Records
---
Amino acid sequence: MIDRSLFHIEDFLVDNTFQEYCAGKDKLCVTYWENYIKAHPEQESTIKDAKRLYAILSGHKKPLNSQLELLKKELNEQETPQIVPVNRYYSWLKIAAVFVLISGAIVWYKNSDRQTKSIQNLITSYKTIGAERKKIELPDGTIIMLNARSSLEINKDFNIDNREVTLIGEAFFDVTHDKNKPFKVLTTDFDINVLGTTFNVKAYPDEPTSEAVLIKGVIVMEGNKNRGNSITLKPSQKVTFYKVKETLPSTRQQNAPAKYPEITINSYTKKSDSTIVEMAWIQNQLEIQDQSFADLKKTLERWYNVEIKFTDNEIEKYHFTATFKDETLSEVLNALQSAEHFKYEIKGNQVIISK
Amino acid sequence: MDNKLVHHLLWERLRVGDQDAFFDLYKALYYDLVNFGIRVCGDAETSGEAADQVFISIWEKHEQLTRVENVHSYLRTFLKRKVLRILERKRKINDALTNAGAEGEWMEMSYEEFIVKVQTDELVRFKLKAALQKLTYRQKQLIHLKFFDGLSYEQIAEQTTQTIKTAYNTVYDAIKILRKELKD
């Protein structure tokens, strides 16, 4: 055995095994030095100084073994399904909230004005039923893809002095640039003002949130009602509006954090193969990204034109991540069954999902 | 390089959901990523957080991962994005942009520069800067390879074309100088 009684910091630190111990890389070295320290309390302070110098020179990296343990723990925790609020709330929105109070009255006034006007001027409207999609080309060259169970109304004087459309449901817009005639999408929760851009809007009345995702260009969003607000969106950003609590399904309310922010801005979800989750429907792709069954229900109902019923609250809490393309409803449900245990029964357009 | 193939095989196993392969890849590349992060942002905390995020995301999305020619550089690119995002969040966007350059060209700092920057203790920072100046070029180089990159004496000897004995002695002398200078 080496006599280390007269060891200085450098004598410890120059030793390969001691370095491995500090880095937490090698289990054997770690055990050896831990035991050594226990057996030689008189050298504790020298060893402590040696470890300090190691930390300084190595850039204060955390020991590999403890980091790996943390990671393993984290992965295990994630295996139990849980609802994690993914949206990040930017504090500048709080500042915007002050603006809301000031502009609220103005927006409200504009609203009441608009509703009467748009009813008179409607001439063209497009509607899709469940499982249906429509591609619409407007007189100005703008292309719109209308998703299932949605409707789009085009004002009579569209393209004369303005370009206004009203949307219920989900649509993808590729707007032709015209700086003299701003393009406006009206929804129940917000209005979108653009010159020429590419974006997706999802505003189904029966969903707890409405959202807009910008792919290209710039859009300015104005919130409606008295919580109205103006937000400028940059490409790849996504705005989510949380509707008033009463419209939330009961299951969501139970699990939801005490308070939802009214609006969040975050980035759209891009997968490694560059599919943008929010846009996947245009390619006929059904993208499920860590969604609860309760959330997924509406999507599936529209996608396959069915009505889904759950017999058990527990099932609604199941979470899934998956990608489907061209699969039938039973193929989708079969695939989901491999992730979580449930039974289903399809009778015409009724689907019953039970435990 | 041998390692490249090893990483590649681990990556392929990771893609099919092999958790052991994932942990092996972590062990093989975690420090490399953290080091790289420190070199570009000069902040150990941010770099560690970003490396954690990189690994967590590749595990979570392992089913969607594509075949990658060079795992090492793929993960480095991934890390850069994470670092930038964290810095953005910390409202240190200016720091990030300074380091990132105008078009995302990341400048790597020298050991002397980033190892001082990475210290959170003002006094240590000051002393370390002075201490490093007392070292010869060779001593600094070996301290870098030994303690930051975590190479063995064999690897250092090979890389710097000197004997293991010389490498060992150089490191020893350098630590002795640093120890005296950095005494608290």
Note: Residues 12 and 67 of chain B are 7 Å apart (CA to CA).
---
Amino acid sequence: MPPSVGWIWLVVLLPFAGFVANGLLSFLKPSAKRAVSTIGVGVLVAAFGLAVAVVLGVARDPNDAPYLIHLWNWLPVGDLNIGVTFQVDQLSSVMLMVITGVGTLIHIFSIGYMREDDGYARYFAYLNLFIFFMLILVLGASFPLLFVGWEGVGLCSYLLIGFWYTEKANADAGKKAFIMNRIGDFGFLIAMFMIYRATGTLNFTEVFATAPQVFQVAGPAITAITLFLFLGCTGKSAQIPLYTWLPDAMAGPTPVSALIHAATMVTAGVYLVARTNMLFAMAPVSSAVVATVGAVTALWAASIALKQWDIKKVLAYSTVSQLGYMFLGVGVGAYASGVFHLVTHAFFKALLFLGSGSVIHAMHKAYHHTHRHDDAQDMRNMGGLRHWMPWTTGVMWVATLAIAGVPGFSGFFSKDEILAAAFARGQEHWLFYLLWVLGTVAAFLTAFYMARLMLYTFHGPNRTGEAEREHLHEAPWVMTGPLLVLAAGSAIGGLLNLPEVLPGAGWLEHWLAPVTSGSGLYLPEAALAHGTEWTLLLVATLLALGGLYAAWHFLKPEALTTAAEAPAETGFGLVLNRKYYIDEIYQGVIVRPLVWLSDRLLWRTVDKGVIDGAAVNGSAWALRGLGWVGSLLESGAVGWYVVVFVTGVLGLLYFVAR
Amino acid sequence: MLLGPALGVSAVLFALGVAGVLLRRNVIIVFICVELMLNAVNLTFVALAQELGPNGQVIVFFVMAVAAAEAAVGLAIILAIFRHKQTVDLQDINLLRG
């Protein structure tokens, strides 16, 4: 084992130490903002530096086997012995880089964004705690330890969505996220129980080693396990049917949206599928379900993003859509491609969110100066911001070109690889051609809604207001600096894994090969001819450019009115604007009947009626009645007692003498 | 000899005692009726001792001793009740009525 890998525990401990320190400061001295930023960002920078050393150690070592760093025994129960053990291998190295790298940038950005917030220390404490749990999630060497991280990031997500908890909508959004995730976690737990029952262990290496012996390929057991695991993924990674919490999660501070709800936490589901690729490869039906849900979600969410006006809502649905691509990738067996898109998405989506944060920051300040209370996140109130925010506009364009899939930018390569992998499986079953079509149409919509966002936000006339306009200004360097780094990543991130037709191709795929090689046995060979691959690249390019052009050509920012005077949406636009009414449908079909059942049947009938009424009070009433009957005998007249007594004696005598 | 008449007398005495306890209201009378029953039993013991040996006579002494003690306690209770309630009528002593 390389010496640096032995220090992995410190990478995990540093953010936790930051959480403890900042948590104490938030109680004792919340005004010490300089100390809070030093600690909060310092631990992340240190963790990132150490993580780089660890990953370099992994890269230099010719041995491909994962390193298991056992710290202590956690749950020794009978045959089951779960330790606090970290697994450092190629996949967790990639995640380690994304979490600490992007995490550090977002922490730095937060210094500027949250500077004037009263909860500054609390914010950084939560953010550090989140990094701690996220590292546990990707480093845990067993399902239970991964689950600890899985739940921990859910907790931090809840805390940060409801960060401004004095407004009920924010607190509700936090609860919604938590409850939606709970549904998914139920699936995760069931899957864990089933895995233990079948294999007798929960450590990744042992489960994957014994899986070929205990599971029948495509058998019911492995299919059920993977489907339950995927239910967990749909909750955490916001896929149909559990995606509705993610757009609401935008109630939190914008850097939180960038870190948790775009770059890291929501990709945990993709990580889980990639980590358990062995199991999913043995269950072709589950893999097809994963791919189908991914592709449908990609298109579904992209179409909703077309008609959102809140800049963060557009990006939220875009995130759901891009996560769908990742699931399409891991569903068709292209695990490296899914992880590749995870990495590039972490760059460009974090950049988009931070860029929108920079915009919201400026809008908020401008409105604050004139004491207006308009919506600082509504694109109808923006427009023409490139005159005031040139840097933000520039980096946002880089991210837009990357997510739209314009050749040369990172998103082009990762998205194309996923679509090519889906297309290649088409020879095996027509379903995969259909998934490819869905993904391709979604790619077109992606280009369209991103161009729409850019057009309405940064171009055309300004709609902010006469008095407010002069207060618009570019964000401070502490905010634009991280944006520039992320922009560089968004631009050149594609170099990690170039397509096969280019020289130096597939670096990330080779890097991840030790993790994904076990599943290769169960996946069909699906290679594309070079001619087909070039054609797919051409189609993807044309669609991306076509989407950008269509938005540019057909949308007219000059005709837009501010949010306050906007006309009502009509027709299908209204359906999209109201998100296909899914929230209302869930409310009507699931929440209302459930509340009715709980309120009328379970509470009023079963609990108050049967248990409280019949069982508890009923037995008391019955005993009181019995006591009343007994008390009738106690007349207080001694003569009566003697009569009873003598009658009893005579009765006894009769029986004895008989 | 004389066993039948003796048992008959004791049965009559016992029945009188029971009737007195059941029917009279005055605590003193009730108390005396209890003594009557005790002595009816004593008479039975003595009569049977003629046939069966002296054990019965020993028990009669026991009963007389216990009855003396009981009379002391019983009369004391009656006195206490009278001091408390100014009556010895059973009808008025009904604190335990349900």
Note: Chain B is about 80% helix and 0% strand.
---
Amino acid sequence: MKRWWLWIGLALISLLLVGVVYAQGGEVTKDDINRVAKQLYCPVCENTPLDVCETQACADWREQIGELLAAGYSDQEVINYFTERYGDRVRALPRQAGFALWVWILPVVGTLAGIGIMIQLFRRWMGRRTVATATIPVEPSPVRASSDLPEDYVARLERELREWE
Amino acid sequence: MAEEAVQPKTGLRVGRLLVWVVTFALLGLLGWGLVRQSQTRPESGLAPDFTLPIFSGYENEFTSGEVTLSQLRGRIVVVNFWASWCVECRREAEELEMVWRKYRDQGVVVLGVDYVDTESKARAYLEEFNITYPNGPDLRSRISDAYRITGVPETFIIDREGRIVLTKVGPFRPGELDQAIRDLLSQ
Amino acid sequence: MIPDVGYLAMVTALVGAVYATIASLYGFFKGEERWVNSARHATMTLAPLLGLSSLTLIYALVVGDFQLKYVATTSSRDMPLFLKVTALWGGQNGSLLFWSFLMASFTFIVMLRRWDEDRELLPHVIFVTAGTLVFFVGLTTFVANPFEKLSFIPPDGQGLNPLLRHPGMVAHPPTLYLGYVGFVIPYAFAMAALVTRRTDPHWIRVTRRWTLAAWLFLSLGLLLGGRWAYDVLGWGGYWAWDPVENAAFMPWLTGTAFLHSVMIQEKRGMLKVWNMVLIILTYGLVIFGTFITRSGVISSVHSFAQSAVGPLFFSFIAVTAVASVATLLRRLDDLKSENRLDALLSREAAFLLNNMLFITLTFSVFIGTISPMVSELVTGEKITVGPPWFDRVTAPQFALLLALMGIAPLMAWRKTAAQRLGRSLWWPFLIAVVVVIGLFLRGVHSWGALLGFLLVTFVGVTTLWEYVRGVIARRRARGEPWLVAFWRLAGRNRRRYGGYIVHLGVVCMALGIIGTEFFQQDTEGTLRPGESLEIGGFRTVYRTLRTYPGPGDLIVTEATVEIYQGDQLLKTVHPKREFYQNTQQTMTIPALRSTMAEDVYVLLTGWESGGATATFRVYINPLVNWLWLGGLIFVVGTLVAGWPDFEAERRMVMPRLTIAPQQV
């Protein structure tokens, strides 16, 4: 399961790099900075991603990202640097460790529990059959007849169609 | 059919219990969050202890490179939260440095806690105002969280027994900090 | 003077609501109908009273009565008229009053209906609705009073937060509130049904239109919020998984599950307990959502300022939650239904799966929303759960739901022969595979996107075909022209075909979402006049920059940018920055060039020395307009599904008939 998302993540990141960024070997562009800033949140504002935050402080932090990238830090290393200094609240994606691990685990557990409950219910409910349910389901199918069908036939058909809504 | 009657009963009891447990757990969580969020900055009582790493070059007597508040018992401590991007902080910067130089041998320590800042910009700020008192980054905002500040600048003055005696939200007016320290020293 | 009248009206409404709550309860316990009737009349007075109160507040806002604290904080002389009116819901206190008015209006309509069939439900419905109003009007009377006066009269007000000064402010909050408030009615009926032990589907039938209306408004509110964010907030997107956004999304999810699962209860008598749980959950999430937005417990860009409202809201949530759970558990035995499933391949099973997915989705979103708060409580440090997490966790579930949406309408109740199903599904699936192969060959290599396109095509084709073959049948039977057949078919079977239209709308929205989620591009750069940024095949050329004053304290800096594709000039746009001097707030307003294929979204993010250089950020949002188109189709479909059709409903006979004929 993890690998799957790795591919999607990579695909996403590579797609987001499209656009002419004349990277002249080592020069850090605004797009590079945004690429990292997108994965970070403003340490001070209320729930604002770092690449769109407009305060002076955020501009300073984006500048810092630029400096780190120019110094050879990788994207992940920049994120780690920020996390060390400003705390986990700065990461858009919770870590898969510590308390944040619960954030990842719980939805999976919830889904599995849901599936489990469903299976149980299905089993139980399919066990109980009522008497005389020998109904052959009437499927709404297109009427392949000529255009001069008797009116009441059509009305009856419509009524049955409605019953099967 | 009889067996079915027994199983659902205990299953149902457990189910009901579970529902109540979850309901109260969620409510409890919400209530706790509310309580926590309404806690304001400490204005009295024992000051929350912390360890502040210090920017190299600003250690003064704290040659270990960090200072722990509880080790400063017996001295008056001025804990000032600031940031280089904070415009208001500039209004009190000179006075803070002046107070440090004037009262340091009378047992007064000024500590600058740099809130959510970049080191290069912070150093530029410190150099601009010729600040020499110990300054360091509040890593992971732990100290700011402990003091529940809502912005910068904020200052807490702690007496010799480690209790908070003054809280200031916003920059000091000219002379205000000096007066406060003088009052404390005369007690 | 006039605001004093408003205050008086509000307090009178509070008294009336308290009376109605007590009288309805008393009337129920004593079995005396005149008390219940009195309570009903008292409840009906609340709407005009709160309406009057709101009107006086609007008057004060428009006229500029700045002695009222609320007016001083949300209005100002220089705001245009429509904004002054919207300031009614621009701040905490006014919006609470407005909410109360909307609730009272809905309750008024409910009180107006004929209660002959449901006499025993009446006292409880009154109790719940009037009780809720006691809370909200109590809030505005004691803790969050919009008529609070200052000790002096300021010369001017602060005005609305610049972020709110937009036509979106006209529609987004009211529709959202209508959605929220609308769900209280089905909840009240559900509680009434539980207490009086009338647990047949009657309460569902009675409230079906309310549920649909509430759900429609909630959907609209969410769509409008997204469009507003896109148009004005300048971050290139429409949904940020912000806690307050999630707070509106969660009741929508459970509300959608509820809409679907009531169909099972009506048709097969199953899931009685579950439907109760769903409506309680939906109502609970509505109140929870209101609580989050207003208490500041969870940090969000949307939050109102902190106030004493938080703890009171919490008490209300606690009381409501405990009361609902207790009532439900007490009456659990009454809700036993003949739950049976004849086959896995049946519409019942599909609906159950649908419900399960909606619930796991709600659960996931809930975890993501409260985790920041919980982490701070438990570890002392707050974490942020941002869009990357939500996308990753919800995408698979949404994908499954989408697939289900295509398959389920083809299944019959009780049992569908696998062969039959296969025969209906293989060729849409084939078409979808062909489309995907085509996309792959044209350069789309992201697995997630390809899967998305596969599902969108598949579901689009199956849903469209369901509609079209009905039209074909009609034409064959009646010889009607195409358009008439389309219209009449929907008209005669509104729920079914309205549903299909809604599903088609969802398909279009999914297309828009896939486009922007997987293929959005952006670039940022500083340009001198004449220079350009290139992205996605487009070239944006910076021409000029000018600054000019706007109304009031506004200063606008506007750039002129030309968008080229190749050598062809497509459009000249004007991205701008609005600066409000009084509050020192900036708004970055994007300029768009829109087609169904993509949006070119240009932002002015900075400039130097009067325009010698200007920094722009340009987003390319592929397929985004399918989202808005889909939203429109979605709304139309809901209207079709819910439009009253008295004749047909009288004729419609339930398979499991009860003794007395059911009236609408």
Note: Residues 521-624 of chain C form one domain.
